[in-house]
Amino acid sequence: MAGGAAVVVTVLGVLAAVHSQQETIPEDPTTEFYVRLLRSLLANTTHTMQDALTRLQNNTAQEASVRSLQESLRDVKESVGSLERSIDNIRNSVDNGVDRTRVEIRTFRDRVSEELADLRHLLEDKTKGVNHQVAEMVAGDCQDLYDLGRNASGVYHLEKHGRDVLCEMESGDGGWLVVQRRARVAVQVNFDVGWDEYKKGFGDVETEFWIGNDFLHVLTNQKAYQLRIDFHDYEKGPYFASYSTFRVGNEGSDYPLYIGDFSGNTTDAFTYHHGRSFSTKDRDNDLYSIGNCAEEFTGGWWYDRCYDAHLNGLFPVVPDRQDAKFLTWWAHEGERRLPLVLDKVTMRIKPKPV
């Protein structure tokens, strides 16, 4: 604005000078001198005014440019301000979005964690169930089933052996597998059978039965077993005999019997048969040189020169201590040797304590 004012002052000065010169001309300019002087003065004045006008125009253009630049600068500043506000808005939006995203991620993570925990519990339950099923499938005896929580006595199926077995889970510390049973029932099972029947087993696990020599061999060679025999004399009541070891050999060696240390509330009559082979009426493996113990006393057993204990004999429907074919356990009463005649017998095994 200062440059423009100076130009204006200059132009006004020139105009004042021209006016002043005009007042000095006579009213009647007749001489050439005055004419040339006036023309010269006008020319000089015109030139001066033209220069002043040119400068004024230049300054005015500059001022217009300045104003235009100033306006452009204002526009730029406004644009910059708008851009900064947009950046702030974007930053705020990003911050808000990040916050929301963080919340969403945290929520998603928590939900995934919960679902993973539920899935883990489900898998654990399923795994336990599968492990339990697998354990039952490979259970080799009643103790294995007892360890799996089967604590009710009864008949169970051993998938591993493909056999039904009678388990006593409520006697003592449970896990007992019954291998032989004799009792008074409506129809007594015939134990006076041959080698093949004793090999495979016979009878009914719900009443009377022999589990089978092949199965006895398999069972008692998969683990170390103990034996407990519970029996009842028809007059004198209950007895028991326990042996720390019980094992039966294979058929190739005629199913020999191996038993360990005795404990019980009666005489040890079974140790007499330790190491003996199994005999039946059609397979004589006893040490009785003049006869076949199984034929004479009926029933297959681990005879020596016959027996001190015979748990596969005839069931004493009418008991008689003089009949050696009955179920018998020889005992001592004082100095007297007395045959206990039995009307109930259970032979059961379970793994030895580790």
Automatic annotation (TrEMBL):
Annotated Pfam families: Fibrinogen_C
Organism: Scylla olivacea (Orange mud crab)
Name listed for the protein in its UniProt record: Fibrinogen C-terminal domain-containing protein
Keywords on record: Disulfide bond, Signal
Signal peptide: 1-20
Domain Fibrinogen C-terminal: residue ranges: 133-353
Keyword Lyase annotated: no
SUPFAM superfamilies: Fibrinogen C-terminal domain-like
Gene Ontology, cellular component aspect: extracellular space
Keyword Glycoprotein part of the UniProt annotation: no
